[in-house]
Amino acid sequence: MELIYIPIIILLIGLSLFLFFRQKKQHKIFMEEIERNHSETAATIQEANESHKTEYEKLESSLYQHYHDEIKRINDNFVQKLNDKDKYIETLQEFSINRGEVETHNLLQELKYELVGEGVITYNEMIIGGNLFVPIWEDGKLYTRQIDHLVLLPTGVYVIETKHWAGTVLHGVTKNNQNDETLSTLLDNMFSSYELKKEQTVVIKKMLNKNRKVDGRSQLELRLLSYGNPAAQVMRTALELRKLLLKENKKYNFVTPIVYYSYSSDEENKVINYSENQNVNVCIEKEELAAFFKNQLAEENTLFTASDLENIYRILKAKNNIDK
């Protein structure tokens, strides 16, 4: 009986060894397959990484170039705007009236910093505005009067008409307030007798006549030019502004008109003031205009608070935005 089991045991051992080595071989094949798959996966990932890296570098380069071009465009645009601004300022200064307004604005700003620095006023107690308009409605039609410069101080509201005229300016001449016979004859030829009952302003200028030459050289001649009556102009503007402000508040009853001749005096350029109009202040050159405002503040006649000044300016700005 025991002899019968021996072959069976041997067969079972042989089968077990067969299965063992077969399983071992399959395990080896399986591990080799895993290793091969791992290597292929690693290679694929490496290839993908390199591809992504290349794409990223291309995208980065493209974005860099895009933003570099955009920054250059913005910078070029900014530089162009600066150049346009410089050209605009230069253009303004090519024309005497515009240059005068620019210089007057700068003068008023400097005066404000000086007065604030000296403790005469606070920063909010001086407001400077320019190129504003007073809307006027008459018979259903809208008219405007331009304000070259508006100055708001505790002592009042000031309207400045700036004139930057070269030559000899004869301000406020009439038939009766000058005794020069030659000038009187010239005025008679420029104005009617009715016009000469009112003050006029004329400018005597030396000018080269390029159409009139002697020995090939343009000849110098004197010209007598009429520019109307700046005092009457600024007075009308002040009155219209006063009417506008009074509609808002009866307290806003003080508007002072000023004619300011800003051209520097020298041998060929000066202002002679013949005017007898006490209602319009005439200031010649920057020192006189600055002195005028300093004297106003020195009188300590306070009419408006800083809040009043802000409200007055707000009213006028609102009217400009709506009625222009």
Automatic annotation (TrEMBL):
Residues 31-62 form a coiled coil. InterPro entries: NERD. This is NERD domain-containing protein. Keywords: Coiled coil, Membrane, Transmembrane, Transmembrane helix. Residues 99-210 form the NERD domain. The chain crosses the membrane at residues 6-21.
